[in-house]
Amino acid sequence: MRRKVHYVIEPQYLWGNIAEMARIQDSELLKTLQRGLSYIETEPFASTFRGLFSEINLASDKLGKTYTKRNARPCKIIKEIADGLSQFSTDSDTLGDAYEYLSGRFAAGSGKKAGEFYTPQPISTILSAIVTLDGQEPATGQRAQAATRS
After folding, report:
1. Domain shared by 38 and 80, yes or no
2. 16, 19, 33, 71: which could form a disulfide with 82 (CB 3.0–4.6 Å)?
3. Domain named N6 adenine-specific DNA methyltransferase N-terminal: which ranges (predicted)?
């Protein structure tokens, strides 16, 4: 994966894990955040993100006088962000829909057919259905499972 996308973030530093730690008010959230920021700056990214988080001080008294109070504030903030994000619909591919719309508009503006730039969603849906037909009998639908040999 590192060769393909050039970086990998370990699971414990991904948003889903951090948001879950905040939701349950995990006492290790602050330490995990600090390790995660350090990891991103140094480990998998060479020098790409070096110093990116150098101004973030998770040990600041401005977050609270004790570790417990400093940990509670990011928990509350991250939980609120996660709750807000959860209100957005995941039923549709918003980014994909936007790409299709903009590609179609670009194609129309350049005087070319949109199909020269992308495959419209209805065509992709039809092609997907055709591919899955391999597991069906044309006249009767799904093929019967082959009997297992004993």
Report:
1. yes
2. 19
3. 3-81
Whether residue 44 is found in the same domain as residue 11: yes
Domain hosting 137: range is 94-142
Token output for 57: 């001080």
Compute CA 107 distance to the chain's CA centroid, rounded to the nearest angstrom.
29
Distance of alpha carbon 135 from the chain centroid: 31
The answer to whether residues 66 and 114 belong to one domain is no
| 133 token code pair | 């037909």
For residues 49 and 23, state if they share a domain.
yes
pLDDT tens string, the chain, 150 residues long: the values are 556 656 778 899 998 999 999 999 999 999 999 999 888 888 766 667 788 888 899 999 999 999 999 999 999 999 999 998 888 766 666 666 777 777 777 766 666 555 555 566 677 777 777 767 666 666 666 666 554 444
Q: What are phi and psi of 79, to 5 degrees?
A: -60, -40
Whose structure tokens read 């330490």?
31
